[in-house]
Amino acid sequence: MALARILVADDEEALRELLTEQLTGEGYQVDTAFDGEDAIEKIQAATYNLVILDINMPRKTGLEVLHFIRDQKLPIRVVMLTGRLGYSVGSESMKLGADEFITKPFDLNYLNLAIKRVLQS
After folding, report:
1. Which of 1, 21, 92, 115 registers the highest number of CB atoms within 10 A of its CB?
2. CB 48 within 8 A of CB 7
3. What is the residue extent of each domain of the chain?
4. How far apart are CA 97 and CA 107, in angstroms?
5. Per-residue pLDDT tens for 37-62?
């Protein structure tokens, strides 16, 4: 039985594949999106417990997808990922309603702990 359904939205194919392998190994059901528009389409078509969003994606940014999720009042937990360092990026995503903010590169064990914590809250 799957623990939760997660959407991983990142324009880096290698990272999507790594996270899919890692998260399915943890028992999660995982779908992927290659950019922000694809993420919104998938969110509209399926029910997710958690979305992992890269901030810098083509067509729509992760912040725009987060804004969509919160505007629609969807009961989805959100973990933001970014390779950009800086307080303002993390602060902005948290103000928009992200549940967690993680900078790349990150430790997979830390991400797993963050996911479990966010899903339990």
Report:
1. 115
2. yes
3. 5-120
4. 23
5. 999 999 999 999 999 999 989 999 99
